[in-house]
Amino acid sequence: MQTKQVKKAVIPAAGFGTRLFPATKVVKKELFPILDKDGRAKPVIQLIVEEAINAGIEEIGIIVQPEDKRTFTDLFKFPPKADLFEKLSPENQKYSKYLVDMGDKIKFLIQKEQQGYGHAVYCAKEWINNEPFLLMLGDHIYSSQIETSCAGQLLEIYKQVNHSVVGLTKMPAEIISKAGCVKGVWQKKNSILSLTQIYEKPTIEYARQRLRVEGIKKDYFLCMFGLYVLTPKIFDFLESNINNNLRERGEFQLTTCLEQLRQLEGITGYIVKGKSFDVGMPDAYLQTLIDFRNRV
User: How far apart are CA 248 and CA 285, in angstroms?
Assistant: First the structure.
């Protein structure tokens, strides 16, 4: 079977950002500024979109709340008003056009009610139109340790295996209760594995008993990096959970549907050669401001 090219990326950006309150009462966390290597202050969402485009993605669907659509539209679809535009340096006037050109690749998808990450992803079903897609977190940015971008690495693995791929990273036991974790069998040592279990936010005890992976040092586990390449079959499982009101912690989750997808089609795990920066919590955002600017 010929591998379908991944042309679209989905970025959920409709959450409330409660962990960054009260700043998120007035500024979406996806719009928080990050200093890039070139010294330019970029909104988080721009860095995520650039990651997708640099990996060869042609269209990006950003999932937003109805009342936030105008804010995101102003960023990507329109230049500043004439009086402000004239005050910009020639370099920034040129950069304004770059943002609008980027906006030509972006479609805004509406999530009317915030009912969890899985529900947000499901809002992209019709737009995806039965194609494989790249899924990116709206509050993570990425930095590759090799020439190929983090997203590009996953897309390359997808071309090889022709089924869903989940980006992974190694995490110490003390923080795995905040992450989705996996177990699997190595296909390429310390790089690629066939997943045998996907589990959301395990306790340390559960992880020690059920999620140990051969060759990973003691009390470290393989957890979600924040990038996925998924087949459209994921929407069937999300739709079933929504129609049957199957929630976890009050919301429709993605991880349980990933486990169902794994059982049906198989999922490959790939340890990304790079780092994922979480901007969704105060201390993590502060560390991102320091580390992302100074990355190699």
Answer: 27
Overall number of domains in the chain: 1
| Residue whose tokens read 């659509």 | 69
Residue 2, pLDDT score: 65
Single-letter amino acid code for the residue at 129: N
Residues 6 or more apart from 106 whose CB is under 8 A from it? 49, 59, 60, 61, 62, 76, 77
Give the other-Cβ count within 10 Å of 167's Cβ. Answer: 24
pLDDT score of 196 more than 70: yes
pLDDT score of 270 more than 90: yes
C-alpha–C-alpha distance, residues 79 and 22, integer Å: 29
Model confidence over 96-145: pLDDT tens digits? 999 999 999 999 999 998 888 899 999 999 999 999 999 999 999 999 99
CATH of the domain at 170: 3.90.550.10
- Checking DSSP bridges between strand 8-12 and strand 133-136, what pairing results, if any? parallel
Cβ neighbours around 214 below 10 Å, total: 10
Residue 78 CB-half CA count within 13 A: 10
- For 99, the enclosing helix (H) or strand (E) is helix 90-103
In a domain, 190, yes or no: yes
